[in-house]
Amino acid sequence: MIRAFVALPLPEPVRQKLNLLQYLLPLPRRVEPEYLHLTLTFLGELPGPVLEDVHHALEALRAPQFDMRLLGVGTFGAPVPRLVFAEVAPCPPLEHLQRKVETAVRRAGVALERRRFMPHVTLARLDPRRSGAEAERARLAAAIAGNNDFSVGPFRVEGFALWRSHLGSGGAHYEELAQYPLLPAATGNGA
Q1: Mean pLDDT score, 52-75
Q2: Strand 173-181 to strand 159-166: parallel, antiparallel, or no bridges (unpaired)?
Q3: What's the pTM value of the predicted model, to 2 decimals?
Q4: Can you list the positions of beta strands (E) in the chain?
């Protein structure tokens, strides 16, 4: 079984700016810069033949390139945050691509969880059980408020990729399995 997901890799200059943001925030478990990405859909644990079917379905997918921006910082998990992320500015072409990817994956035989797509780039995972976590949360909330004007882009999204996730004691490590280019956009906004 292979734990896999489909995601947008981020350009190196974007990852550098996100890495700087990570160091401006008091984050105990940062995502390594080379692993920063935007998940389009999580596939779960799949047998090799099903993953091969997913690969072929994604190869056949056609969608245009587009521009997107990261805008702001937020957390998931209330009342105790468990994840810190960079927010994605509203981007209809991104939502269109995500729907196409999800449709292709379902047609390949993968039963996906029904979740609302909330595009984001995970910066860190938090452990609310750590001693001193309450004081850390207060420092983090203040740092997020101080960096809420964070912005990167717009930058061009030229493709997406199929990734494998290796879980370990030091956190997840990702391996890119295949890349899928998007079509050059006919207009400047990727519509």
Answers
A1: 96
A2: antiparallel
A3: 0.90
A4: 2-9, 37-46, 66-76, 83-88, 120-125, 151-157, 159-166, 173-181
